[in-house]
Automatic annotation (TrEMBL):
This is Delayed-rectifier potassium channel regulatory subunit KCNS3. Residues 126-137 have a biased composition (Basic and acidic residues). Pfam families: BTB_2, Ion_trans. The gene is KCNS3. The keyword Membrane applies. Belongs to the potassium channel family. S (TC 1.A.1.2) subfamily. Kv9.3/KCNS3 sub-subfamily. One of its GO terms (biological process) is action potential. Its main location: membrane. Residues 126-145, 462-491 are annotated as: Disordered.
Length: 491
């Protein structure tokens, strides 16, 4: 009992109400319940038929005039205390929303919560939405991680009915899951090394001293590196395409599209270079070749296949387009406002470079993003004050959505690492997925024997009838065990 239950005892002439809440029995006077007639127990006393009573309680015994409720018995003590004292106290051991649902079931308004508990109750209710958001984010991330794992498993099942299915399945696992075995890791490391070598060669090729030799031809070392990398990329893509369980789904994958786009510039440049020099479009050939060579920058995106961070970044941007749009909206509004304001105060100054609104857009953009190249800047006092305000507002505007995006990136990064770890884990031992075998009857018999022995040793068996009952239970169990052994030849 809690609080007022100690001090309340119904009068002798008062009609009593027998309540049974989850096995907790309590007798309460009708006058106590009628103090709050709009609650469930108060309305229960106004019922005049068994149907109306069963609408408010789970069961009703006519003989004992007992009302049964299948609810939390521990919390019902707090409900009884409310009827006795008129003040409701919060059950700290219970979730705040479960507590809210329970008192709503009993028809008690949360406004009756006493002042000693109301502040803590409201704080717990306000903190819970943030926990719910985190839980939902985790659930989404976990679901997406499980979906990725399940998709890979379903892809492996498709190889069973294919031609050369076992060989293609082995190749596919080696190419798509570097953590599966040592050879797959070596292939992944080799592919990553080729990507890095291709990027380094592209950067070196942009330097004037390495572009052409003294004879005016391409640097043979860089050209050899380029051809070797292209052969590797082409072979890798061809092997993946040949081993893929579904060709249509293969070309829908962003990583495979990146692999294809990264080798197109080489073959397109090769086709352009082999054109007849007397062609009418020979003047544009040089520009086309330069553009195609610049497209080799897409090879950097091939690192996403081997980088958990890049894949997590892509997943974060894909699931954070609302926040990214919000960031762009905030920046656009701020840039538009500050560009017009600084133009209005700087246009009349001859020494200012902010002579038009488009130029002021550029200044506002680099100021709000805190880049500040310094190529254009206000020179008047009012312009400098506006510039300071623009920088401070830019910090606040950028910081708000970035925090949400960073939290999502952290969650996706952790989940992606978990998925990679699960994919590269060892196979379970044989029989690990089987449930352990328990003989419930033997366990029950052991528990009963130990319990009866403890009662006998403690001298709690009070009467001969009790001891006779205990011995009869033991005899019945022995007989049941003997019959089971005779009927079960496996034992």
């Amino acid at each position: 009992m809690v609080f007022g239950e100690f001090f309340h005892s119904p009068g002798q002439d008062e009609e009593l109400v027998h309540l049974n809440v989850g096995g907790f029995r309590q007798t309460v006077g009708q006058s106590t319940l009628l103090r709050f007639p709009h609650t469930r127990l108060g309305r229960l006393l106004a019922c005049h038929s068994e149907e109306a009573i069963l609408e408010l309680c789970d069961d009703y015994s006519v003989a004992e005039r007992e009302y049964y409720f299948d609810r939390n018995p521990s919390l019902f003590r707090y409900v009884l205390n409310f009827y006795y004292t008129g003040k409701l106290h919060v059950m700290e051991e219970l979730c705040v929303f479960s507590f809210c649902q329970e008192i709503e079931y009993w028809g008690i308004n949360e406004l009756f919560i006493d002042s000693c508990c109301s502040n803590r109750y409201q704080e717990r209710k306000e903190d819970n939405p943030h926990k719910d958001w985190d839980q939902k984010s985790n659930d989404v991330s976990t679901d997406s991680s499980f979906e990725e794992s399940s998709v890979f498993e379903k892809e492996l099942e498709k190889f069973d009915g294919m031609r050369l299915g076992s060989l293609r399945k082995k190749i596919w696992i080696h190419m798509e899951n570097p953590a599966s075995c040592l050879s797959a890791k070596l292939i992944a490391v080799s592919s990553l090394s080729v990507v890095l070598a291709s990027i380094v060669a592209m950067c070196v090729h942009s330097m004037a001293e390495f572009q052409k030799t003294e004879d005016g031809v391409e640097n043979p070392v860089l050209e050899a590196v380029e051809i070797t990398c292209i052969v590797w990329f082409t072979g890798e893509l061809a092997i993946r395409l040949a081993a893929a369980p579904c060709q249509k789904k293969f070309w829908k994958s962003p990583l495979n599209i990146i692999d294809f786009v990264s080798i197109i510039p080489f073959y397109a440049t090769l086709a352009v270079d082999t054109q007849d020099e007397e062609s009418e479009d020979i003047e544009n050939v040089g520009k086309v070749v330069q553009i195609l060579r610049l497209m080799r920058i897409f090879r950097i995106l091939k690192l996403a296949r081997h980088s958990v961070g890049l894949r997590s970044l892509g997943a974060t941007l894909r699931h954070s387009y609302h926040e990214v749009g919000l960031l762009l909206l905030f920046l656009s509004v701020g840039i538009s406002i500050f560009s017009v304001l600084v133009y209005s105060v700087e246009k009349d100054d001859a020494g200012s470079g902010l002579t038009s609104i488009p130029i002021c857009w550029w200044w506002a953009t680099i100021s709000m993003t805190t880049v500040g190249y310094g190529d254009t800047h206000p020179v008047t006092l009012a312009g400098k004050l506006l510039g300071s305000t623009c920088i401070i507002c830019g910090i606040l505007v950028v910081a708000l959505p970035i925090t949400i995006i960073f939290n999502k990136f952290s969650k996706y990064y952790q989940k992606q690492k978990d998925v990679d770890g699960d994919a590269g884990g060892e196979e379970p031992a044989p029989g690990a997925g089987q449930l352990p075998y328990f003989n419930i009857r033997d366990l029950y018999a052991q528990r009963v024997h130990s319990f009866l022995s403890s009662l006998s040793s403690a001298g709690i068996v009070a009467s001969e009838q009790d001891s006779t009952d205990a011995s009869s239970i033991e005899e019945a169990e022995d007989a049941y065990d003997t019959a089971s052994l005779e009927n079960d030849p496996a034992k």
